[in-house]
Amino acid sequence: MSVEQPSNLLSSDFLAEAEQCLANGWSLPYSLINNPDISAFERTEIFEASWQVMGVESSVANPGDRLVGRIGGVPVLIVRGDDDVLRGFLNVCRHRGYPVASEDGCSRLLTCRYHGWTYDLTGGLVKAPEMTPCGEGLRAELSLKPISVATWRGCVFAHADPLAPGLLDTFSELETLASGCAFDLSSYQPHSTFTIEIACDWKLAYDNVVECYHCASIHAETLNTLYEADGFEDATWQTGARLASARLKGSDGLHHCLQLFPGNYLVQDTVIGIAGRFFPAGLGRTRLEFNFLTAPDTNPEDADRFVTIWRETLNEDRAILEAQQRGICSGRLERGRLVSGPENSVAAVQQLIIDAYRSAMEDRQDASRQALLGNNADTIETGGANAAVA
Ligand code: FES
Ligand SMILES: [Fe+2]
Fold first, then answer.
1. Separation of CA 212 and ligand 2 centre (Å)
2. What pLDDT digit, counting tens, does each position of 106-119 carry?
3. Residue nearest to atom 1 of ligand 1 (CA)
4. What domains sit in the chain, N to C, each tagged with a CATH number?
5. Which ligand is nearest to the CA of 119?
6. Which of 8, 132, 163, 285 lies in the 20 to 30 Å Cα band around 48?
7. Alpha-carbon separation of residue 339 from 44, 186, 233, 342 (angstroms)
8. Which of 86, 117, 83, 85 is nearest to 101 (CA)?
């Protein structure tokens, strides 16, 4: 099996130069934006190999409750079983690949709409119309394919690989960060969902959500009315996790924003919570899916007001990001200049992206080497057999 390279763009020389430029105050090169090979590589090697927050435990509290979503391009499904266990599956029918559930909901059986194959909450096939024989052996063989699921402080995460390293093994500082501010969304209740697609590369969206350099100019009437943003950029990444905190304006309440690379965005404050994420949804497209939550003991009007302002803020960001993408895609500039201090957080997330490229490239090279060794072993074996025949 040969392993394709995304392009020569991600050679070790290219990454070393990008890293050097970043250290000197320059952004990632714009050649990484709107490149189909890079985009496909990022989707499969970074996002599809990551833990992604799919929602909150309070949304899947009862048997039959389910969350439907995707990790990169992989459709996934999480369901609460009759035994109270939360399980995750590929949301791909074992018959001919249609999704077995199209949206969040609650049911004791999962029936694929295409031809009616039906699965139970453990993923087992229980009915396949007109298929005979459909004995136990075949039914077991045609169960939904499992994925990894983790719950953590009220949030539900999924990873497309059933053998993925655990969430807390992946983010080894996460517990320490969360305990320091008592981050926990378990007692927060679902308020509403907000989904938008933005015509921009996910990396531009990432730069945007880690800095508040733009808050005074873009969000003066929205986000800036809710929080004191001082010090927001000072938060550092610790093994892929970053905690930034701020005070609420006009009260002594606190706001904590916990980000997990890539794209996970969790918020807890004294009025609302967020279990959200953004991820690439095709070339030059970013999809943002936010679950807004209401904090316990919050006045519902306050929660509504905060959520409305957050939605307006995200729409402001969408307009900015789409215009920025058009400027960058004009192809006239090589890279941007970052401002030391308020944009240290942008440099930090861009370094994380370089690290992710490097690690994924090394994994590919290892896979390539293994494949080559396998082929050589085959050749040697075949050679031996032929020699014996001769
Ligand atoms: S694809 Fe699901 S029943 Fe045919
Ligand atoms: Fe913003």
1. 7
2. 999 999 999 999 99
3. 96
4. 10-50+172-365 (3.90.380.10), 52-167 (2.102.10.10)
5. 1
6. 8
7. 32, 38, 12, 6
8. 117
